[in-house]
Amino acid sequence: MAWGNNELLRRGPARAALDRAHVLLRRGELSASERADLETEAHVIEAAARCYQDQVFGIEGLIAECLARPDSLRPWVVSAAADLAVYAAVYRFAFDDARRTQDWAVPYHERTGHYGLVWGYCMTGLADIEELDIAGAEDKVRTALRIAVESGGAHSFTARLASALLGELRYEQGALEDAQGLLEETYALGSESVDFMVGPYVIGARIFALRGDLDAAAERLDEGNKIAADLSLPRLRARVDNERARLRLPNQHWPAPVVDYDDRREPADGVDAITIHFDESTAIMGLLRDGSEESIDLALVWATDWVDALRGTGRYRALLQANRLLAVCLDAAGRAEEAEFVLAVVAAQCQPRGMIRFVLDGGPHAPELIERLCRRRLDGPWDESWPELPRAFATELRAASGR
Predict the structure, then answer these.
(1) Helix boundaries (H) for 53-133
(2) Which domain holds residue 19?
(3) Rounded CA separation 38/11 (Å)
C-alpha cells in the first residue's frame, strides 16, 4: 500500500500504510533477517516519498543499507533504491556518480519490468543536459522511450515519462510539432516527479504562446501552479512563475513570492538551488520590466552575481542560463557591445548542440539584442576575437525570431 500510494502521489495514505508497517514490524513475529529486510524496504519507501516531494535531504542515508547488501533483497527494492541514488546524485550535482550508479544498477532494473531502467536513463539524461551533452542526453532518453514502448506500449506510464524529457529536447532543437506531440502525451500522464512536469506545463505553455494562443498558455501555467500548490512543490512553482514573467502573463490566483536582493538565502540542497535560481531570475526580469535606472543597475549586479557563482561549478546549463540573462541586463544598462558579446558566447555554445530555441527564449527584452547580433554577424564586420558563430546559424536565428 505504501509503494502504490507513493506512486500515485497520495502522501497521507502512503504515510499511514508505512506507519502501520512499522507497528507490525515491532511486534516481533518475524525472524531477525525478515524484519531487517522489511525495515530496509520501508526506508527505501520513505526515500521514494521524499523524492516525490522534490526533496533530497536524507535520501542517501535511507537507501544506504539496501545498496550495501543488494543481493539479499528483492530486485525491485534494489532497483528503486538505485534510482533514488541517481536522483540524489543529480541534485548534489555529482553527475559522474549518477551515471556510475545507473550502470551498476542495470542488472537489477532488468529483473523488475524496466520501470527502474527507464527512470534511470531519464535521470542520467538530465545529468547530461546539465553538462550540455545534448547528444548524450537524447541518446539516453530515446533509449528509455524505446525500452518503455517495447515493454509496455507507446501510451504506457514509462513511455510518457521518457516523452516528457524528449519533448523538451526536441523543443530546444526547434522541432515544435514533434515537441508538442510528445509533451501532450505526457500531459495526459498527470502528476509525477517535478522533472517530468516541467515539460508539459512550462514548455507546453511556451509552445502555445509561440503559436499565439496566450489563453491556452495561461491555462496550462495555471494548472502547473495548482499542482505545485496542492503538492507543495516549490521548484515547479518557481519554473511556472518564471515562465509567466518571461511571457508577461498575469498570475491572478497564485501570486509569486517576493524575492529581494538584500534577503537572498543559501540553498539547502540542489533542488533548492535550482528553485532559488529561477525565483531570482524572475525577480531580475521584474527589475528590467520596471525600467528605472536604479532597477536596471540592480538587475545587472544580480545577474553578474549569478554568473560569478556558477562559473567553475560544472553546471554548464545553469551558467548558460545566467549568461543569457546577463546579456539582456547589459543591454538594458546601455552596454550594447558587451551585451552582444555575451550573447555571442551563449549562441556559440548552443549552435553545435542544436539549441536554437535556448538562444531565442531569453525573455521579452531579448529579441532586439538577438537581431543586432545577427545583423553584426551577417552584415559585418565580425570581430575575430569573438566566439565563432556560423553565418547559417545567425540566419536561422533571425528567421526563427520572426525578423
Answers:
(1) 59-68, 75-90, 95-110, 115-130
(2) 1-111
(3) 20
pLDDT tens for each residue of 71-121 = 999 999 999 999 999 999 999 999 999 999 999 999 999 998 888 999 999
Phi, psi of 91, deg, nearest 5 = -95, 10
Instruction: Specify whether the CB–CB gap between 47 and 81 falls below 8 A.
Output: yes
Give yes or no: residues 241 and 145 share one domain: yes
Same domain, 308 and 370: yes
Q: Indicate whether 284 and 403 sit together in one domain.
A: yes
Amino acid making up residue 138: E
253: cell is: 490566483
Alpha-carbon span 284 to 276, nearest angstrom: 12
* Run of H or E including 145: helix 134-152
Residue for grid cell 528590467: 288
If asked whether residues 235 and 324 sit together in one domain, one would say no
How far, in Å, are 214, 242, 258, 300, 365 from residue 248 at the CA level? 10, 10, 17, 20, 11
Q: What is the pLDDT of residue 29?
A: 82
User: For the residues 259-275, what does the mean pLDDT come to?
Assistant: 95
Grid cell 508539459 is found at 200
CA distance 281 to 248: 14
- In this predicted model, what pLDDT tens digit does every residue of 9-65 receive, in sequence order? 899 999 999 999 999 998 878 899 999 999 999 999 999 999 999 999 999 999 999
CATH of the domain at 168: 1.25.40.10
Residues 129 and 206 in one domain: yes
Q: How far apart are CA 108 and CA 74, in angstroms?
A: 9
For residue 98, CA distances in Å to 93, 95, 240, 377 come to 9, 5, 27, 40
Contacts with 279 (C-beta within 8 Å, 6 or more apart), sequence order: 238, 241, 242, 256, 257, 259
What residue has cell string 528483492? 74
Q: Spell out the SS3 assignment of 232-251.
A: CCHHHHHHHHHHHHHHCCCC
